[in-house]
């Protein structure tokens, strides 16, 4: 487990507080030249100082998000590695998403499970940290995996098509979601308490008996 | 009723904002928790930026409310006011191949949907500077147009959608190649390979890179296009097509595009739609003729 700790993030706190505007600006290819950027925002980015600040916030948010996800991913991967039946392999990453692949040791089949942690704006919850599980096999696999979690823990993770907050495909289970707005400070410009976000996510994942569930998921999918 | 409720909420929010703003001006903006990035930012300037973004959000919210009300009056059956996404119930709301298969079918003027070339022209309207192409389609008619999903060419790969036109006598041949992305990123040199391969096989082509956020492809030959812009032009085109056989199908598909690919809360409930990102709604419902 990483010994590093996370700082409170001004940038992610600011982004969470102004999610609609920051998302619209971030998704614009070039906010200063993009004709599709709404007039209200275009007039803000036309101001050199404010444009520089938005860039600063964006870069800091990407950096903070990267650190937050690395921390969450490391903690969950360490938890999974405690199960001696499992091996963990790192996968491609971005600033807003990290994932690792889990396989059974000494298993020659191509069965794998991908655990992904990522940050995305949800419809009602705003900027949120997600942890999802994917295995090959589409809808049937998601159904089977959900019942494994339900038998082990009595809890039933959300399957892809059931989620009203964000959209994803079959084969994916939502293990946990932590909205950032639940962990904002009380300052005039609220900061995001990243340590609490990590704790909240890790706490949820711990109750799911993830290593054991993953071993069962992988065995069932072979 | 919806407008009154939302107006009340906005008034309440504006009141809170004014209180927060006056508190902000009174308090010392030098918070110093032990581990913090505060030193990186000028908190005064950040506070001003936050205020500006809030003002912009409020203005956009008001504008989007008016736009939505006008749109509902004009087009009550709009895909924006619908609760039935076509692909999401099958768990395919973000499945690239399912989306492009349906899209190719809708874009083909000769299919059984009966929408003719409406949606193809709407698609062309979403392409920047494609006036000449539109004129060609209108002049040539639909009989010689062909649309293909998952179109393979040797050594190049499979393009998601390819549209061929101008193949009738007296017309200039044209080809549109669409590479659509949802969650996946571009394959290694994918767009460069397509640009080279398709141009050498079919001559001059128009390449489009269709994504949720309008990002650019690695190859400069591809023009970026957002699903939101496509949905916007589909909505405009469907307004006069409510009696046609394929209207409901296209409506459900466009509804799914809005919900699953654009993050817009398309719904029969106006309150629900109003909870979408106001800036996105504003862009979706901007008057036709603007990009």
Task: Give the strand line-up of the largest sheet of chain B.
Answer: 1-2-3-4-5
| Unreliable stretches of chain B | 20-36
- Oligomer kind: heterodimer
Strand content of chain A: 15-25%
Number of helices of chain B: 10
Please tell me what the overall shape of chain A is: elongated
Q: How many distinct beta strands of chain A?
A: 6
Mean pLDDT of chain A: 88
Explained architecture:
The complex is a heterodimer of chains A (222) and B (291). With 222 residues, chain A is of the alpha+beta class. Helix content of chain A is 45%, strand content 19%. Chain A is built from seven helices and six strands; from the N terminus they run H-H-H-H-E-E-E-E-H-E-E-H-H. Chain A has a six-stranded antiparallel beta sheet with strand order 1-2-3-4-6-5. In chain A, a hairpin with an 8-residue loop joins strand 2 and strand 3. In chain A, helix 1 (10-17) packs across helix 4. Chain A is elongated and about 60 Å long. The two termini of chain A are 30 Å apart. The mean pLDDT of chain A is 88. Chain B is α/β, with parallel strands linked by helices. Helices cover 48% and strands 12% of the residues of chain B. Chain B is built from ten helices and five strands, in the order H-H-H-H-H-E-E-E-H-E-E-H-H-H-H. Chain B has helices at 2-26, 43-74, 96-107, 118-125, 131-140, 190-202, 227-238, 247-261, 270-274, 278-284; strands at 146-153, 157-165, 174-180, 205-211, 222-226. The longest helix of chain B has 32 residues, at 43-74. The two termini of chain B are 32 Å apart. The chains are: A alpha+beta (222), B alpha/beta (291). Chains A and B meet through helix 1, helix 2, helix 3, helix 4 and helix 5 of A and helix 1, helix 2, helix 8 and helix 10 of B.
């Amino acid at each position: 487990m990483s010994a590093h700790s996370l700082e409170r993030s001004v940038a992610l706190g600011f982004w969470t507080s102004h999610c609609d505007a920051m998302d619209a600006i971030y998704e614009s290819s070039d906010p200063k030249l993009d004709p599709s950027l709404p007039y209200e925002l275009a007039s803000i980015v036309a101001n050199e100082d404010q444009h520089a600040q938005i860039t600063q916030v964006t870069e800091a948010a990407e950096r903070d998000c990267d650190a937050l996800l690395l921390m969450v991913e490391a903690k969950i991967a360490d938890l999974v590695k405690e199960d001696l039946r499992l091996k963990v392999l790192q996968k491609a990453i971005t600033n807003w998403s990290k994932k690792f692949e889990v396989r059974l040791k000494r298993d020659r089949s191509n069965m794998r499970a991908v655990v992904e942690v990522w940050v995305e704006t949800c419809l009602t919850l705003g900027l949120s940290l997600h942890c999802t599980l994917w295995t090959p096999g589409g809808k049937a696999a998601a159904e089977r995996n959900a019942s494994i979690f339900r038998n082990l823990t009595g809890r039933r993770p959300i399957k892809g098509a059931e989620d009203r907050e964000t959209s994803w495909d079959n084969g994916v289970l939502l293990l946990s979601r932590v909205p950032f707005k639940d962990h904002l400070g009380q300052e005039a410009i609220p900061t995001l308490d990243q340590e609490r976000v990590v704790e909240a996510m890790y706490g949820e994942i711990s109750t799911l008996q993830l290593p054991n569930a993953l071993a069962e998921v992988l065995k069932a999918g072979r | 009723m919806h407008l009154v409720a939302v107006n009340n909420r906005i008034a309440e929010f504006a009141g809170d904002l004014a209180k927060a703003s006056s508190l902000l001006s009174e308090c010392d903006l030098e918070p110093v928790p032990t581990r913090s990035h505060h030193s990186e930012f000028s908190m005064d300037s950040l506070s001003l930026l936050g205020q500006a973004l809030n003002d912009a959000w409020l203005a956009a919210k008001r504008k989007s409310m008016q736009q939505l009300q006008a749109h509902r009056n004009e087009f009550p059956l709009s895909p924006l006011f619908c609760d039935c996404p076509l692909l999401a119930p099958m768990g395919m709301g973000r499945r690239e191949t399912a989306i492009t298969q349906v899209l190719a079918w809708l874009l083909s003027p000769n299919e059984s949907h009966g929408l003719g070339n409406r949606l193809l022209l709407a698609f062309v309207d979403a392409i920047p500077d494609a006036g000449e192409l539109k004129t060609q389609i209108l002049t040539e008619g639909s009989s010689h147009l062909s649309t293909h999903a998952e179109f393979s060419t040797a050594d190049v790969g499979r393009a998601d959608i390819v549209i061929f036109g101008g193949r009738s006598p007296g017309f200039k041949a044209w080809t549109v190649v669409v590479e659509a992305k949802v969650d996946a990123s571009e394959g290694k040199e994918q767009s460069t390979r397509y640009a080279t391969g398709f141009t050498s096989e079919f001559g001059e082509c128009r390449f489009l890179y269709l994504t949720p956020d309008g990002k650019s492809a690695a190859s400069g030959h591809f023009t970026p296009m957002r699903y939101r812009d496509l949905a916007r032009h589909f909505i405009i085109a469907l307004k006069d097509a409510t009696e046609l056989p394929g209207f409901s199908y296209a409506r459900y598909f466009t509804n799914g595009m809005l919900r699953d690919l654009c993050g817009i809360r398309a719904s029969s409930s106006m309150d629900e739609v109003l909870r979408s990102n106001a800036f996105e709604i504003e862009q979706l419902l901007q008057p036709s003729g603007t990009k």
